[in-house]
């Protein structure tokens, strides 16, 4: 295939690496608004060349939209206006608003909405890594709205690079993503801000920081350019999860105020049940 990667960052760049490694792509064309990122993407051989979006669409078999979700919302109708036989993949972390926007588009069938449940806290072309998707789940959303041949092609791509396919409707996806991904980032941002504020008084905090602390605040390194649009598009679900999270923090706070260590012990035991879900 000839493939256009629109947005050559962590996800787009890593997918480009896998398409090249697996032999699925004969040519990779990059579309990148950031000139510095465009130059680095070519230097790192993530793509063969850079061109404008209109030219790329006309030349390729597959278009991958790997830009922030607010940009996907803006670009996707324009891309679908121009496609004929081509397949379009979007890899955003939210789905409902994006898919509602093109629900009635006459070329909606050429779109396959996917969310690879993979990533790191880094962004840009330098963040692209081999085998990012290997062994990871990829959600395909609103399957029945996509043409069967487009779905088969996209399934083959993800399975060839080692991913597992699961299916969800867009509303369920956004609800579950709020629980397993979006709230994790908010919690990490909040913890980093808490520690950075306290560290102004107590310099020893970071001297004592261990692997546990590093893993807990790792997500706080994530780009606001990526995450603010996600929180904006999934605001309702994120708020719902955040209210519950704050409720649990208040329970813990009150137990410490009351010196209810027996209750706190039982609460941690309840939390340990997560082992049955995440090994």
Task: Give the arrangement of secondary structure elements.
Elements: E1 2-6, H1 10-21, E2 27-31, H2 35-43, E3 49-50, H3 53-59, E4 62-65, H4 69-82, E5 87-90, H5 96-101, E6 111-116, E7 137-141, H6 148-160, E8 164-168, H7 170-199, H8 204-208, H9 211-217, H10 224-233, H11 235-257, H12 261-271
Parallel strand pairs: 1-2, 1-4, 2-3, 4-5, 5-6, 7-8
Antiparallel strand pairs: 6-7
Helix pairs in contact: 7-11
Structure in words:
An 8-stranded mixed sheet has the order 3-2-1-4-5-6-7-8, sandwiched between helices. The protein has 279 residues and is α/β, with parallel strands linked by helices. The chain contains 12 helices and 8 strands. Helix 5 links the parallel strand 5 and strand 6 (111-116).
Low-confidence sequence ranges: none
CATH topology category name of the largest domain: Rossmann fold
Strand residue percentage: 5-15%
Spatial separation of the terminal alpha carbons: 38 Å
Summarize the structure.
This protein is an alpha/beta fold.
Which labels suit this protein?
alpha/beta, Rossmann fold, 6-phosphogluconate dehydrogenase C-terminal fold, 2 domains, eight-stranded mixed β-sheet, globular
